[in-house]
Amino acid sequence: MSLFCNGLHRLLSALLFVTCCAGFVTLAHADDTAVTTNKLVKRFIQLDTNGDGVSFEEFMRMIESRARREYAQMDANHDGRVTKSEYRRFWNARKAQYYRVKR
User: Fold this and answer.
1) Is residue 83 part of a domain?
2) What is the pLDDT of residues 19-32, one digit of tens each?
3) Residue 33, CB half-sphere, CA atoms under 13 Å: how many?
4) How many Å apart are CA 7 and CA 25, to the nearest integer?
5) Which of the ends of the chain has fewer CB neighbours closer than 10 A, N or C?
6) pLDDT for 75-99, tens place per residue?
7) Domain span at residue 49?
């Protein structure tokens, strides 16, 4: 079980990193960073389910929800395992969203 938890922690950390990077790319291209920041803060605060601030558990529910969606997209044959070829197909399909060649 410990290896599973360690692997899940690594996956969640990686997804959080990618999510944050995507957010920073959006910020870098925004004309008005104050408006963008306000939108991000509003979206984050919406995670608060009881009005006392966003708890770690509420934040982790959002991360887990995103992780499950991403994993489902990676696992093309839905067998509960992502192979190298499945991940390669997933990444090749998605990388265009994050990396654009400037000419």
Assistant:
1) yes
2) 555 554 444 554 57
3) 6
4) 27
5) C
6) 999 999 999 999 999 998 888 676 6
7) 2-98
